[in-house]
Specification:
The chain is an alpha+beta fold. It has 3 helices and 9 strands. The chain has one domain (18-161): Alpha-Beta Complex (Cathepsin B, Chain A). The protein is globular, with a radius of gyration of 15 Å.
Amino acid sequence: MSQPSTPQTTPGTITTAYKRVAQAERCDDALACIAMIAGQTLQEVTAVAQVMGYPKQGPAYIPEAMIAKIAMKSAQLVVSDYKDFVSFAALPDLAFLYVDYDEQMEISRLVLWHRPTPSKLQNLSTVSGYIIDPAYWVDPKHQITRDVSHLAVEWYLTVHSAKTQPSKPKA
């Protein structure tokens, strides 16, 4: 996994290991989340996705199997199948969270969850995790935040480098 040499610090004193990549369209949230972890641009990840069948125009839905293939091809990232969300404390250290599920439309969107270990990010004020939301329409205070009260999480996908083992979900 590529991590920026200088962590991103937000106005709310959150230092992140990944730089926020905003999505460009309503349907490229998964690609933006992959780009964040890969340290790539949205355009680079989108190009990989298009080679793999992601449409160049129009609406698109990226199923979990395709998310996994794009993540592997873009940055040697392994992405799990859907897992039921229980609590933030029970999440692994790195995951894509499915949030704001609309039952009638049967859609939701992805945000990036990261819980750094103190050894990986020395100037983090606490060990709790944070969210990086790629949505361009969310309030800027919710783009990078520890405040998760505005999100309804249903499922998650564990993410880890193909070279490492995934972190274990917390008990």
